[in-house]
Input
Amino acid sequence: MDRRTALKKTAIAAGSAALVPSLFSLLQSCQQQARLNWEPIFLTIDQAELVSTLTDTLLPKTETPGALDMKVDMFIDVVFAKMFDKTGQDAMIAEMNKFDALCAEKFGDKFAELDTEGRKEFLKQQESASPKYNGKVWGTAVGVQEPVGFYRTIKSLALWGYFSSEEIGKNVLSYDPIPGKYLGCIPLQDIGNSWSL
Output
């Protein structure tokens, strides 16, 4: 299974962690803003560069658009500015600084300054070391959720923003604006591509 397919299959689980109705309007506002005129509203330029580089490494442009094409980095900046309280913002900035400091300690430079292979290697380490989101039953997290840190938060928001964008929903995922009859018992192998809701 290739990485893009694996990400598609995890999109629903990862996206549900950040599922808030008002995020849709934030995502749409980012989609309408021109990239050349974009200035972060919460992040500093260096922090925005880190988020942009990280999301581009997670979801690079291939035969399908990448995270930067969908302006996922801009979306994350707006989420931090409008959805996080001051305590959450301060915690995220501290986690971001810790992420870059650890990267510099292990690889000799900030994440945005590493080459592609260095970024991938550091993210592999982060994937295995970062706390995970708790499992859910009927949309409710099981147990007390420990903080997941900067990497897992950005990954979750990047997946949510990417797969919630209109372009991906209509042109990458399967899309049927007027669904047909209900078929409740279909073999999994017959379903094919993930569906955009």
Q: What stands out?
A: The chain has one domain: 3-191. Confidence is low (pLDDT under 50) at residues 6-19.
